[in-house]
Amino acid sequence: MEVLLVLRLCCNCTYALLYKPIDRVTRSTLVLHDLLKHTPKDHPDFPLLQDALRISQNFLSSINEEIDPRRTAVTTPKGEARQLVKDGFLVEVSESSRKLRHVFLFTDLLLCAKMKKTSVGRHQQYECKWYIPLADLTFQTLDESDSCHSIQVLPEHEIEEMKIKISLLKSEIQKEKKAPKGQNRVERLRKKMNEQESWLLLHSPTIPFRLHNKHGKSYLFLLSSDYERSEWRESIQKLQKKDLQACVLSSVELQVLTSSCFKLRTVHNIPVTSNKDDEETPGLYGFLHVIVHSAKGFKESANLYCTLEVDSYGYFVSKAKTRVFRDTAEPQWNEEFEIELEGSQFLRILCYEKCYDKSMLNKDDNEIVDKIMGKGQVQLDPQTVQSKNWHMDVIEMNGIKVEFSMKFTSRDLSLKRTPSKKQSGVFGVKINVVTKRERSKVPYIVRQCIEEVEKRGIDEVGIYRISGVATDIQALKTAFDTNTKDILVMLSDMDINAIAGTLKLYFRELPEPLLTDRLYPAFMEGISLSDPAAKENCMMHLLRSLPDPNIMTFLTLLEHLKRVAEKEPLNKMSLHNLATVFGPTLLRPSESESTKGQNITSVSDIWSHDVMAQVQVLLYYLQHPPISFAELKRNTLYFSTDV
After folding, report:
1. What sign does the CA torsion over 322, 325, 326, 331 have?
2. CB 291: neighbour CB atoms within 10 A?
3. Which residues are in the C2 domain (predicted)?
4. Which listed site, 10, 114, 286, 458, has its alpha carbon 20 to 30 Å from 518?
5. pLDDT at 27
6. 513-534 confidence digits (pLDDT tens)
7. What is the three-class DSSP state of 365?
8. d(C-alpha 189, C-alpha 201), whole Å
9. Which residues fall within 8 angstroms of residue 312, CB to CB, at 6 or more apart?
10. Where are the domains positioned within the chain?
11. pTM for this entry
């Protein structure tokens, strides 16, 4: 009997604690309904009663999720529905540091929130950082006299290194899944990968998206994709075409709206792969070959070009850009690009009108803003793109149709160094064969490409990083292979990124890496030495051990890359960036050597294995004082060449 009394008392207490406050609000809501029915609309208390009723209704709606699980709106002070139009995670620059925010676009305002830290077992909640009524929001640029947010951009090599670390973690997770009792370690690795992917998501975006309110306050987001920036801008501008009135939320109204965001949101997790289910497709790894053929549907002639974006590591990045086709309504580009895919699932194409009018200069970014004419995306279906044949497709965008073709090469195929069947050319032919035939110390193709890059491409932003047009590179490859007489004329007329791409392709297609298969294990051991003197002796000894054509070519390339890095303020290519581009190309062993003695479980393992060490080897030599061939050969007399 006593136990029953205690239980009844506990139940009453629980009811009082959990349900009485809600019960009171419910009763108050009913009373407010009755009061409003009997209160004249011109009575001074009528607006206050309306506000009180609306706040009560929103509170009850946010509490009772089971009754209304798919609510998409809250009620405004005028009794209208405040609909959620769009939401997503964006990086905000606040107080000169990057912050990950969840941004909510409603029919009448934009709200920027952050997720509150909550104890285990409690519901997650948002905290409002700021909001702007759409009636007060503008995209106008700041005057030069106004203060401009400082954007901290990390060196590109740090971003690339983090990608490699994530790739290695993914491989490790796959191995542990197959191991007995590996589940606990898998969870730890997933947590670490989530942290690294979140870091990447925070530090990768660089495209500014600025918002201003009528009071002069401005906010800055950084996005990784112009496509995404355009989507946000268009969504806001579409809502602003309506007759919007400026709204001011009371602290209670703001709190209710912010609380409702948790339930209204359509994007629940930050877009990192560690948040995806194991059953979800991992995306494509390898190279996507895309030919942008043509476009039609433009209403008038303009200067037109396209850019290509693909997703990797949870965000989209721009990978290629066509030439500007001038003064036409039906551009015929017919340009081919090779795009590296890193777990990619979508291809986006954006069509722009090139603006040459300097009066359109964006004072925030000191760049002329080109107009987006249309944009669209296609899913990269593995079954469609992995066939050997080209797959033709059309993207329709804002009345414009862009025709393109694509095919995919997996990483296991793209990693192969395949010797050329024709030994009369230069691509796929051993370097000593080429130099002996040419009676030169350094292959002609290397000397000519370097000369052209230094003549007119050394100041080019992203030289050696930005892809050249594949059809141009193929034309140059054929010209060098057939020893065409007008090769110098071709070089002088060709886009500089195509020439840079041709040089990279030459080294990538060598049947054996420039630093040789035989010495590869020794280079990997040498770069890992911790004693500086021992490392110096080992790394110099390894250079001496290379065949003479390899040494001369390597030293020629080394000095060239140093000269490129001297122009880093203009071309944005540091020694580390150049080492990231060329390291794997110069060191990655041929297929037979790369898999020897290694337990490789996936294509991703092959790709990521030793990549960081390969970059470090080249970086060591790039950071080393000038190395002379004569000095190396003199020292050969005092050192054994057996490795």
Report:
1. negative
2. 18
3. 266-395
4. 286
5. 67
6. 999 999 999 999 999 999 999 9
7. coil
8. 18
9. 163, 283, 341, 342, 343, 344
10. 1-66, 69-142+206-277, 284-414, 422-637
11. 0.72
Distance CA 232, CA 87 (A): 9
Amino acid at residue number 534: A
Find all residues with CB under 8 Å of 306, minimum gap 6, and list them: 292, 295, 321, 322, 333, 349, 350, 351, 352, 402
Q: What is the pLDDT of residues 159-180, one digit of tens each?
A: 888 888 888 888 788 778 877 7
Would you state the pLDDT for residue 492?
Answer: 92
- What is the four-CA torsion angle of 583, 585, 588, 589, rounded to 10 degrees? -140
CATH label, 69-142+206-277, candidates 2.30.40.10, 2.60.40.740, 2.40.70.10, 2.30.29.30: 2.30.29.30
Q: DSSP for 151-162?
A: PP---HHHHHHH
Given a cut of 50, is residue 619 above it in pLDDT? Answer: yes
Question: What CATH number labels 284-414?
Answer: 2.60.40.150
Return the DSSP state at 145: T
In the chain, the amino acid numbered 354 is K
Instruction: Tell me the one-letter amino acid at 531.
Output: D
Q: What percent of the chain has pLDDT over 70?
A: 80
Distance (Å, whole) CA 518 – CA 520 = 6
Cα distance from N-terminal residue to C-terminal residue, the chain: 90
Q: What is the pLDDT of residues 533-591, one digit of tens each?
A: 999 999 999 999 999 999 999 999 999 999 999 999 898 899 998 998 999 999 988 86
Pair of tokens at residue 150: 């400082």
How many percent of the chain have pLDDT more than 90?
A: 47
Burial group, residue 493, by CB count within 10 angstroms (0-12, 13-18, 19+): exposed
The two three-digit tokens of residue 64, written as one number? 């009772």
Collect all residues with Cβ–Cβ distance below 8 Å to 495 and sequence separation of at least 6: 323, 468, 469, 472
Sign of the alpha-carbon torsion through 604, 610, 614, 619: positive
pLDDT at 51 over 90: no
Please give the pLDDT value at position 147: 39
Cβ atoms of 261 and 354 closer than 8 Å: no
In this structure, the strands spanning 207-213 and 367-368 are unpaired
Task: Say which amino acid occupies 584.
Answer: P
The whole-chain average pLDDT of the chain stands at: 82
